[in-house]
Amino acid sequence: MAVRRPAQKPTPQGADERLLVEAAQDDLSKFDALYELHFERVYYFIFSRVQDRSVAEDVTSEVFHKAMANLASYEWRGTPFSAWLFRIAANAIADHFKRANREPQSTGDPDDENIDPNPSSNEWKVIESHVHFFRVVAKLPEVQRRVICERFIEERSIREIAGRLRKTEGAIKQLQFRAIQTLRAQMGDRHA
Amino acid sequence: MPKRSPAEQLDRAISELLSSLKARRASKPSPSAAKLTQFVRALHCLPRPEFKAALKSDLQRRTTMNEATAPTPAPAPTPQFRRPGFNNIAPYFCVNGAPQFIEFLVAAFGCTELMRMPMPDGRLGHAEVSLGDSIMELADANAAHPPRPMTIHLYVADSDAAYASALQAGASSVYPVADQHWGDRQGCVKDPFGNVWYVATPKGWVPSEAGIRAVQPFLHLHEAHKIIPFLEAAFGAEALGVAKSPEGLILHATISIANATFEIDEAHGEFQPTPFYLHAYVPDTDALYAQALRAGATSVTAPYDAPYGDRSAAVIDPFGNTWYLATFLGAGQP
């Protein structure tokens, strides 16, 4: 049986986040701010469980649509808004696996099969570390970011990227090298 | 054996790690590679920026729809999604010498100049000309919008006369007017700006009641068949009359987006791919922008209310063509 752990408080948003939620409840067009704040968090929570980009995108989309549709019923109880999103996500992932009629990919934690919506304190740290990492990648110089996306998201070869960006293969390798160096410098040991 | 540079060594390690991730091999990395492994794993989890942008746009659209379906006040429905006059998918020409290009269009094909917006240096920021039921747009090229010669299929009342006047206006002949086996009397010219024009008059066939547009962009593409599923998924396009070779190459297809059409075929001979700038009016720019990103397009401009009264957005398709999507907000809008 899965042990339901209380949600840890990983982010410093607190009162600010509450204001954002209330603003969006009053005016749905302000849901954007919550989306920007939590997109990477929800996406990683889902991706780490389904290990498939296409499924992660479908489920992430479902989570935010459901969250927006049910925002009026959300009550602030002192836990992070992301805990509510994770609960929706856990249900959506479970539904996905039911539909797909297969077990989830194991990530080493036997509780995973129950799709626990409450990450352990250790997993909170992993999620937050990835959120920070994704945002650091987003701030890379445009051409470096493009190379990283082509290489790691689209899984293109150096040759293919060189063709698409109209650069030499050596130049693409250098851009990749510089991007990784920048990420290493900015992340320090945080990702180790 | 020459020593590999740090960039090459890193790429070699990344390639191996990506292969092992793809094969889902759970090999234990050496301590020195452990950090890089974690980086590669984390990068492999990166969300696609296009997906993030598309979902955001989709959510914004839902917000708008929710507001639109709220009990009060009900906004007036948009009477039509096309700006009056825009019946076709309009080619947007970026050329060096836009004023001279307008002169050519008027002299060669009898186009009517509708508007021009000159900039302080005399170059044109935007201009529009009409031909029959269609509109073409143009501007002087700049660094962000370099010249892109395009290929256009014109249906005119007299292709012989149009061919002759095009040559007189400075175009060169690609092939002379003749009765073609597909039922058009057609010739082909290249204008001084590098654009190719098929000049045709239907002969031996009668256009449908809806008629044919006077101006249709004609895209020559490598692996043209691959653009059809993209256009269907991205823009809800419909492929009409697809003719294929025994090898499966597209000899000709007409593609309809929101009842406006353009043509494609497999690139051949001197008719090679050139990326187009295309302006398409659609019923819901936000929806199609989100759909296009999901289908693999790259965002150029997220949807916004343009000051001239359109809801506008721009994406680049996987073939390199830039699509300006627009929904006319109606007269009296900002």
Taking the alpha carbons of the first and last residues of chain A, their distance comes to: 31 Å
Number of separate strands of chain A: 0
Q: Tell me how many strands of chain B there are.
A: 16
End-to-end separation of chain B: 68 Å
Task: Provide a short characterization of the protein structure.
The complex is a heterodimer of chains A (192) and B (334). Chain A has 192 residues and is mainly α.
Describe, in plain words, how this protein is organized in 3D.
- The complex is a heterodimer of chains A (about 190) and B (about 325).
- Chain A is mainly α.
- Helices cover about 65% and strands about 0% of the residues of chain A.
- Chain A has eight helices and no strands.
- Chain A has helices at about 15-25, 30-50, 55-70, 80-100, 120-140, 140-155, 160-165, 170-185.
- The longest helix of chain A is centred in the first third of the chain and has 20 residues, at about 30-50.
- In chain B, the strands form two sheets. In chain B, strands 2-3-4-1-13-16-15-14 form an eight-stranded mixed sheet, with helices on one face. Chain B has an eight-stranded mixed sheet with strand order 6-7-8-5-9-12-11-10, covered by helices on one side.
- Chain B has seven helices and 16 strands.
- Chain B is an alpha+beta fold.
- Residues about 65-80 of chain B have low confidence and may be disordered.
- In chain B, helix 6 runs antiparallel to helix 7 (about 285-295).
- The relative contact order of chain B is 0.13.
- Chain B is globular and about 75 Å long.
- The termini of chain B are far apart.
- In chain B, strand 15 (about 310-315) and strand 16 form a beta hairpin.
- The chains are: A mainly alpha (about 190), B alpha+beta (about 325).
- At the A-B interface, helix 2, helix 3, helix 5, helix 6 and helix 8 of A face helix 1, helix 2 and helix 3 of B.
